[in-house]
Design goal:
This protein is an alpha+beta fold. It is about 30% helix and about 10% strand. The strands form 2 sheets. A 5-stranded mixed beta sheet has the order 2-4-5-7-6, covered by helices on one side. A two-stranded antiparallel ribbon has the order 1-3. The N terminus is likely disordered.
């Protein structure tokens, strides 16, 4: 009896060890990607006339590479924000302008990418264009980079105006000479928008919507964008002429992390 018990115990121990080894070497189950709630939409499905130049799906941004989570150059918004933007677009089309979006919904993983980049003080590859007058060590303190972004709630976008007929934007060539975002429009990267006084994502106080140094046609362009979007229910961030949030937000306290892709949307393929 004792011998049988000893043998049984040995077999049980061997089986447990085999199971543990199998579990340790088995491939981990891939976690499914998060998906968007049903009231998030691709902007093109609501208004295909609004131009899109999704900078974070490219290398032409302050980091200098495609940002985490941007699988496609696609503007995604909550449906109320997209429909309000369509209202603004209809107003502008009658005046010979179109909206152009640079960024819309932004996943939290993209914000985390920004934070990692900002913490790496040695990486200043894109300083010459996007923050020529700001020390990188000041990006958090001065509010240019934060660990959370309203974009991740789905109702915030970065937007500009384009005079019609719209011309195509030439491709950005990684490694090309950089021109400061505060330089005159004829010297800055030619993104075909009207002159707003700075380029998009310009980390400089000159980007403040009502900066008194911005006058003439540049100020008029900023005010046209501001008044039109405010008339459709958007609120401007005073420090960035391009940044607008639709109010009331459907998700004022939720920061989503589904990727920027059609497959993340309901009915996406």
């Amino acid at each position: 009896m004792t011998r049988l018990t000893t043998v049984t115990r040995a077999l049980v121990t061997a089986a447990a060890a085999l199971l543990a080894a199998t579990a340790a070497t088995a491939p981990a189950q891939a976690r499914p990607e998060p998906r968007a709630p049903g009231d998030f939409v691709a902007l093109r499905s609501v208004d295909p006339t609004i131009l899109q130049e999704m900078r974070y799906a490219t290398a032409h941004n302050f980091v200098g590479e495609r940002i985490d989570g941007y699988r496609r150059p696609l503007c995604i918004l909550t449906r109320p924000a997209a429909e309000a933007l369509r209202t603004a677009q209809r107003t502008l089309l009658r005046q010979g302008y179109s909206l152009k979006v640079y960024d819309c919904y932004r996943p939290q993983r993209a914000v985390d990418h920004f934070v990692r980049w900002a913490e790496d003080l040695d990486d200043e590859a894109m300083k010459g264009e996007f923050y020529p007058n700001v020390d990188k060590s000041r990006l958090f303190a001065d509010g240019y980079i934060a660990k959370k972004s309203g974009h991740s709630r789905g109702s915030t976008l970065d937007v500009t105006l384009v005079r019609l007929p719209a011309k195509p934007t030439r491709p950005y060539r990684p490694g090309e000479p950089l021109v400061p975002c505060v330089a005159p429009q004829g010297e800055r990267f030619p993104d075909t928008s009207v002159d707003m006084g700075t380029g998009f994502d310009c980390f400089d106080t000159l980007s403040h919507t009502l900066d008194p140094r911005v006058q003439g046609p540049q100020r008029a362009n900023r005010l046209l964008l501001k008044s039109t979007l405010e008339g459709a229910g958007f609120v401007n961030l005073a420090e960035e002429w391009w940044h607008y949030t639709f109010k009331p937000e459907p998700y004022p306290d939720t920061y989503f992390d589904f990727p920027v892709s059609a497959t993340a949307l309901s009915g996406g393929r």
